[in-house]
Amino acid sequence: MPQPTLTIDGEVEHPTTISFSDLAAIAPEFQVPDVSVIDPKRKGGAVTLAGLLALVRPKAGAKYLTLHALRDDFHASIPLDSVSDRAVVIYRLGTEPLPESAGGPLRFFIPDFAACHTSEVDECANVKFVDRIELSTERGYDNRPHDAAEHAELHEREKS
Ligand SMILES: Nc1nc2c(c(=O)[nH]1)N[C@H]1C(S)=C(S)[C@@H](COP(=O)(O)O)O[C@H]1N2
Ligand SMILES: [Mo]
After folding, report:
1. Which of the listed residues 126, 127, 131, 153 should we mutate to test ligand 1's pocket, taking the one with most ligand atoms within 8 A of CB?
2. pLDDT of 19-67, one tens digit each?
3. Quick one: residue 112, left, alpha or beta (phi over 0 = left, psi -120 to 50 = alpha)?
4. Residue 15 domain boundaries
């Protein structure tokens, strides 16, 4: 199986596409060896968003972060400032890529997220199967559910 990759592009000095082994090679100061310290319900190892941003160097005008999951066409766009010092990308379980059942191979995760559809930075923005993180000056594409009914429908679909 080819290695999962993550593209980070848009309003950055150094757009890049990195692989599982590139993520594992990011400096220890940016690694979270065990995400259960952030949320006891989560397993695996992560890199901090700060570590990824250090690689690509956001331009001064970068204000939004859009998380793209091509796999199920799910997208969320949130203010960069609100997550730049706390969000992580969970990428491994042991020495293997994060399993799909946990939202892998790559899963964006915001500690202390708000309840679904209560804020821009809510649980729904914990995008699973994320393959691209796009920085932009304006808010990007976002198809998170808007209300409880849409939300229930999405979770029905997830089960099938
Ligand atoms: N790719 C993708 N990511 C997604 C979703 C989705 O449908 N597709 N649902 C979101 C919503 S609405 C919620 S509440 C959380 C649920 O995450 P969990 O199943 O790990 O609890 O994942 C978010 N990430
Ligand atoms: Mo959600």
Report:
1. 126
2. 999 999 999 999 999 999 999 999 999 999 999 999 999 999 999 999 9
3. left
4. 5-159
Distance 73 CA to ligand 2 centre (A): 15
Query: Is residue 68 lining ligand 1, measured as CB closer than 6 Å?
Result: no
Count: domains in the chain: 1
pTM of the model: 0.97
- Closest CA to ligand 1's atom 14: 124
**Pick the residue with more confidence: 45 or 1?**
45
Report how far ligand 1's centroid is from the alpha carbon of 114 (Å): 13
Buried b (16+ CB within 10 A) or exposed e, 63-98: ebbbbbbeeeebbbbbebebbbebbbbbbbbeeebb
Is the minimum distance from the CB of 126 to ligand 1 under 6 angstroms? yes
User: Taking a C-beta distance cutoff of 8 angstroms, is the pair 132, 84 a contact?
Assistant: no
Q: Whose CA is nearest to atom 13 of ligand 1?
A: 124
65: CATH:
3.90.420.10
Sheet of strand 5-10: strand arrangement: 16-19, 5-10, 132-136, 64-69, 74-79
